UniProtKB/TrEMBL annotation:
NCBIfam families: PncC_domain. This is CinA C-terminal domain-containing protein. Residues 15-106 form the CinA C-terminal domain. It comes from Rhizophlyctis rosea. The lineage of its organism: Eukaryota, Fungi, Fungi incertae sedis, Chytridiomycota, Chytridiomycota incertae sedis.
Length: 159
């Protein structure tokens, strides 16, 4: 299975600016946008913040909450999405966080992702849980695909 998610091209180049904060997906989501011609017209940049310290320093997430949930929660995803819009000055931010492998002690691979519109202050949230056996890069690709779809579906509703 290819690591980079196979995604349809955006129907039109967005009229808004976009930035991305990634943890679990480690750059795959950003790569899915910049691999398309015209990305420089709307894509301002991305931050791959893999550790709690980098999420706090670069994206201004709440360290106490993040420590309690091992950086995997809807709130962490929301704070990352908002933080990346503030870092780049973009209208829209997308963020991903989660486990690419089963956590110690058991459980399934899982992720939270969020899209934030800095103009309206609204969020769209996504959650995914992979049951059964998943390879690390399959998880990363699946979460990148789902986060991008959440973004695309929401933007389609904008006038």
């Amino acid at each position: 299975m290819p690591i980079l998610p196979t995604l349809s091209k955006l129907p039109t180049i967005p009229t808004h600016t976009l930035s991305i904060a990634e943890s679990l997906t480690g750059g795959l989501l950003s790569s899915s946008f910049v691999s398309q011609s015209g990305a420089s017209k709307y894509f301002l940049g991305s931050i791959t913040a893999y550790t709690l310290d980098s999420k706090v320093k670069l994206l201004n997430i709440d360290a106490t909450h993040a420590r309690e949930v091992d950086c995997v929660s809807p709130l962490v995803a929301r704070q990352m999405a908002k933080g990346v819009t503030e870092a780049f000055g973009s209208r829209v931010g997308i963020a991903t966080t989660g486990y690419a492998e089963r956590p110690e002690g058991g459980g399934n691979v899982r992720a939270h992702f969020a899209v934030y519109d800095s103009t309206s202050g609204e969020y769209k949230d996504g959650r995914w849980e992979g049951k059964g056996k998943w390879e690390r890069n399959e998880v990363r690709g699946e979460v990148a695909r789902r986060a991008r779809k959440l973004y695309e579906d929401w933007v389609k509703t904008w006038k």
